[in-house]
Structure formats: C-alpha cells, structure tokens
Design a protein that fits this description.
single chain; 195 residues; 69% helix; extended
Length: 195
C-alpha cells in the first residue's frame, strides 16, 4: 500500500493529465470557432458582417469574436511556418504550438477566465509606486489596448477606408501621428527610467 503522500501526488498527476487533455480539446474548439468566424466574414458582403455580429452583442461581444479569429489565424500561421501541405493545414493548426500567448490570453479575459489587465496588478495599489509617479509627474490612465488593436485591424481590412472623405482621412492621420508620438515618448521615458 502506498503512503498518503504518494497517493495524493498520483492523484495530482491524474488531474494534470485530465487538464492537458481537456485544455487541448478546448483549444481545438476555440480554433474551430475562430475558423468559422473567419469563413463567415469572408462569405458576407463588405461591411455587412460587422452589422450581423452586432446582433449577438447581448450574448457575446464583438471583441470576443475577433479574439477567436486572431487565435485561429495565429495557429494557421504557425502551421504554415512548418511547411504543412494546404490540405493538412487546419488539422495541423489544431495541434500547433502557439507562438504568442496574446490571443489566447485576450480571449480568456473576454470570457472572464482571467481578470482584465490591471484588475490584478498589485503594483497598481503600491503606495511607493504612486509616490514615485507623483514626483515624476506621471499619471495613470486606463487604455483599452484590445479595443484599439481591434479597431486598427478593422481599418486595415476594410475597403471602406477608400470611401472616406479626404478631410476624415487627414483627421485620422493626424490622430494616429499624435498617438504614435505619445507612444514613442513613453518608450523613451521608460528607457530613461530603466537606465
């Protein structure tokens, strides 16, 4: 008869095996959902797809759909990088190793399996950090990164950009340039602090 410590460890190993198998199945379902969303978008007329998925906002947000699509796209790219024949691409993608955790993490946040970025940031509540920020004149603000990236991706994928008025495009360009300047300044300040 095994001692209790060994029995508990063996139970942990069984649960580990169950987790790995379940997680793999969940990832396959996530890939399939993303692939169906990608194919659905391709089948709709330009612009109609966004209106259609908006009808599901009460059940599931638009950003969640995009996170599924991003996850599927990244898995497909990972499979393509392995030079898999096109006819085996989807099956290979279902088993591919994610090259980045971002899409999966964003999807898990959207599904509320993980708290949103900042909700769990212990440093956010660190009084020493806040004191240093005040001395340096830094200010904390909330930035919806996923929403911003989603909007930029939609902009890049949309043929409607060509239909915008030149004044609208100029205003958009100006805002993007201002945002880029802010990001570059933040990067420079971060580098100065790290040194």
């Amino acid at each position: 008869m095994k001692n209790p410590a060994e029995q508990l460890f063996n139970e942990g190993m069984r649960e580990h095996a169950n987790f790995v198998a379940t997680f793999h199945r969940a990832r396959v379902h996530a890939f399939n959902a993303g692939l169906f969303f990608i194919q659905s978008r391709a089948a709709f007329k330009n612009g109609d797809w966004g209106d259609y998925i908006a009808t599901f906002n009460a059940q599931f947000g638009r950003s969640g759909v995009y996170f599924y699509m991003q996850l599927a796209s990244e898995l497909l790219e990972s499979a393509r990088a392995q030079k898999v024949p096109e006819r085996q691409l989807e099956e290979s993608a279902r088993n591919a190793v994610l090259q980045s955790p971002l899409a999966l993490t964003a999807l898990c946040r959207e599904l509320k399996f993980i708290r949103r970025l900042g909700d769990y940031d212990s440093q956010k509540y660190d009084p020493v950090k806040h004191a240093i920020q005040k001395v340096r004149g830094q200010q904390e603000f909330t930035f919806a990164y996923e929403t911003c990236v989603e909007q930029l991706d939609a902009l890049l994928a949309s043929a409607r950009v060509n239909e915008l008025k030149p004044s609208s495009l100029a205003a958009l360009k100006s805002k993007l340039e201002q945002a880029q300047a802010c990001v570059e300044e933040a990067i420079q300040q971060t580098r100065a602090i790290e040194v």
